[in-house]
Each structure stands twice: as structure tokens, then as C-alpha cells.
Amino acid sequence: MNVYKLLQLNRKVKNHRIKFLGLYLLHKFNRRYLAVNLDPVLACNLRCKMCYFTDAEYIKKLKGQFKDDEIKRVAETIFNRALKLQVGCGTEPTLYKKLPELVALGKQYNVPYISLTTNANLLTEEKIEVLLKAGLNEFTISLHGVTKASYEDFMGRADYDKFHAAFNAFKKLKKFYDFKVRINYTFNKDNFHELEELFHHFDGESFDILQVRPIQRIGNTEYNDFDISTLKDDYSRIIKVIENNCKANGITLLAPTSISKLSNNNEASFIFDYTFCYVSPISFWKEGFNWKEESFNSFSKKIGWGKLLFSNIFKSKKELKTTSNKLNYEVEFN
Prior knowledge:
It contains 14 helices and 12 strands.
């Protein structure tokens, strides 16, 4: 399954009523439509300056990890509704000791696409290969700086050499396994311009997708300059350079084509709130879901989830104004 073609299709289908009709039918007939984002452990080995792990008050709330029997119950409850399983959604999943078993559990439930979001500092070639053998489809790698100085400054406690060792392993293992590597580059006014040199530091054969996204306010973070207006004159030029480099290397680019598009409404995100399912040791999809005892179907029926999806078919876009904070990305295939 190519999740990026699904993203592109979602953008092409402009009629939100058709989208909600599709979601309603998928829900009614017990088919897959959820993007399950799972944090098996609430911890991180790094202290990135743009991340809430530098917010001392916030991380006091982020404690805990799933026990073996709980993970099995999570899988039983939601994996048969997952179109995609993303392991890691703001914490570091490689700290979870039974990560390969979790990936294998996803495959046991026939989840079509399983990705791992990680800072890659704890990945070795051996660990990467174990995950691939378990059935992992994609590594999504967080990156906040292209050069060694910038990378280690913005990603506190990170090691640039270990990071590159992981990418060397990706390139090597691509000869033997079918998987994707995606870089998520979070930029601010101080690390954006070095993106122009990305392909001087990273081998285009070591990754497949590049997402370029702006800094967002996610707590009382150490780096808190959210003003990117000074990039207005250079943004489109540098994104064009990146786009050309991506085309030359056969890499899929996900990026807003201009600064102005960052603030435009993203109509493709209307269904985001209805397909996104977050699971962690302290949270499971919707408030009030007693997932250890209730099934997904029984709880969704109790809260009228199917009725809500159906009623959204007949609502206007104004009535459905999304509460999600999805950015207005273009998806460029090369």
C-alpha cells in the first residue's frame, strides 16, 4: 500500500461529502480507515530544542509504558481498523524494548502499512534489520539541522555520527529489503537556509521521502522563536532547489510551495480528525473509552460515531471547520 498516493488522492478529491460517505461506509462495514498513532513508551533520549521534552512542566505528565498484556489488548481493540500504524508520535519508540514484537503484532493483524517515527540515535544496522524482518514498512526520521553543528545544537544529546551511521545502514539494507525512509525536517528561521545543502550531507539513495515543515508551538519549548516571516523572500527559491534535487534522486517531496500556503486552509484535512487515532499509556482515541473492557465497535456505537460520520455528509465546509492543525502540503512524486 502506498500511503503517499492516498494522501495525494485525498487532496484531489475536493468534495468533502464524498469523503465522509466513504468513511461512513468503511466504518459501517468494519473496514480499515484509521491512522493509528501509537506511543508505546512516554519518554525520549534526546532534548530537542523545538520539542516539548524541553518543557519541564509538560514532561511531568509524560510517564509510563505499555505492559505486554496491554499491548496485546491494544492490538485486539484497534489494529483491525488501522489502515496505517505509526509507532512513535512525539516520543521515542526505540526506548521500548519489545519494539520488533510490536511491529510483528501489527503484521499479525494485517495492518497494511507500519511506520516508525524516531530520532534514529539508538538505531544500529542490526536493530534496523530486525525491525525490517518483523515487517516494518517505513522509518520516519526526525531532523532539525543539516550540518553537524546545527543538528547537535537543535537536537540536544544527539550524535551526528550515529545519525549518519543509521542512514548508511538504510542505504545498505535497501538492496535486500523493500522499505521506505522518510526525513521529517522541522525548520525555523535559523536552520532553514542550510536545507539548500541537504544533498551535500545526505545521500539521495539513503531515503525516499522528504517532508519540510515549519516549527509549531507545542509547549514551553527551549527554542521559541516561531516567526518565520523573514524567510518569505528565500522560501520559494530554496524549496525549488530542494524539489529539483528530489526529482534528480527519485525522492517524494512533501512541502508547502510558498510561505503563504502555510496559513491557507487545508481542505484535505477535513477528515483528519475522523481518521486520526492516538494511543498511549495514558490516552486511547476518545475520552471515556474503557479500552481494556470495551470493544471499538461497542464504544463507537455508544458515542454515535457512525451517526456523526453520516451526518457530516450533509454539513457544509463552514460547519465542518477542522480543528486539526494540518499544514497545506503539496505531495510531489518523482
